[in-house]
Design brief:
single chain; alpha/beta; Rossmann fold; 2 domains; 6-stranded parallel sheet; 5-stranded parallel sheet; 8 helices; about 20% strand
Length: about 260
């Protein structure tokens, strides 16, 4: 059964590769945000990055010239905290991650502990240690459930790719035999939690992304209209390789402004 599309009322957009590249706003990004505000559209900026809090990310966007309120930013850390709260309110977790993840879990009432945790929760971090990974492996062996914020195996840096959440998750999974449940993209769970946040309906919500294998596939699985922009990971000549198609392929976010 095909969902009948309605006039777009709510917008979800990826951040890196759509609105910004590193710390520079991409052409059309400021006009896009301004149009959303002018039209009083509900919207969220999404990112799989679990390191930073919405306040951190709002400040980063502001430095690039994009004024996005904290409440309009939805991270894989927030989606993970929302998921855990729905599964086991008031639970406990051993966390490998940064402030974006620990703050999100704290704010939904989770206790952070390294003993008898209900969950081991893995997010992106630049400070992995042998001791924390060993602790995670032992807690999972003792029955803790394994959750990870996102499956990205690398993340970019000016010096080149860095090992990311998916790489560390693979190491822990190999040692324990326990596969993690990834909450972030391409799991459509992240989009559904974002839509709940702004009371959006799938038939009138659009997702904009730069990656076919995360943004677009998750948007399709969540029942959304999808727009691929060619300013990030996926090139125009790669689109036909995938067994699914975005609703539109546009050069950049500048081409989306008139659609709002």
């Amino acid at each position: 059964m095909t969902t009948e599309r309605r006039e777009p009322e709510c917008w979800l957009t990826d951040m890196d590769g759509v609105l910004v590249h590193e710390d520079t706003a991409l052409p059309g990004a400021a006009a896009f945000i301004a149009r959303l505000v002018e039209k009083d559209r509900a919207f969220l900026v999404l990112t799989n990055n679990s390191i930073f809090t919405p306040r951190d990310l709002a400040a980063r966007l502001a430095r690039s010239g994009l004024i996005v309120p904290e409440r309009a930013i939805w991270t894989s850390a927030l989606a993970t905290a929302d998921f855990l709260h729905s599964q086991k309110p008031g639970g406990s977790a051993f966390v490998i991650g940064e402030a974006g993840l620990t703050t999100a879990l704290y704010e939904v009432g989770y206790t952070l502990t390294d003993h008898d945790a209900d969950y081991v929760v893995l997010g992106e971090t630049r400070t992995h240690s042998f001791e924390t990974i060993t602790r995670a492996i032992r807690l999972i062996g003792n029955g803790a459930r394994f959750i990870a914020t996102n499956p990205d195996v690398t993340s970019p840096s000016p010096e080149g790719p860095l090992p990311a959440t998916g790489s560390v998750a693979a190491m822990i999974a190999t040692a324990t035999g326990a596969k993690p449940y990834f909450v972030g993209k391409p799991n459509p769970m992240m989009f559904r939690s974002a839509m709940n946040r702004i009371e959006a309906r799938s038939e009138s919500t659009v997702m904009i992304g730069d990656r076919m294998d995360t943004d677009i596939v998750a948007g399709i699985e969540a029942g959304l209209e999808t727009i691929l922009v060619l300013t990030g990971s996926t090139r125009a000549d790669q689109v036909a390789r995938f067994p699914y198609r975005p609703s539109r392929v546009l050069a950049s976010i500048a081409d989306v402004v008139e659609l709002v």
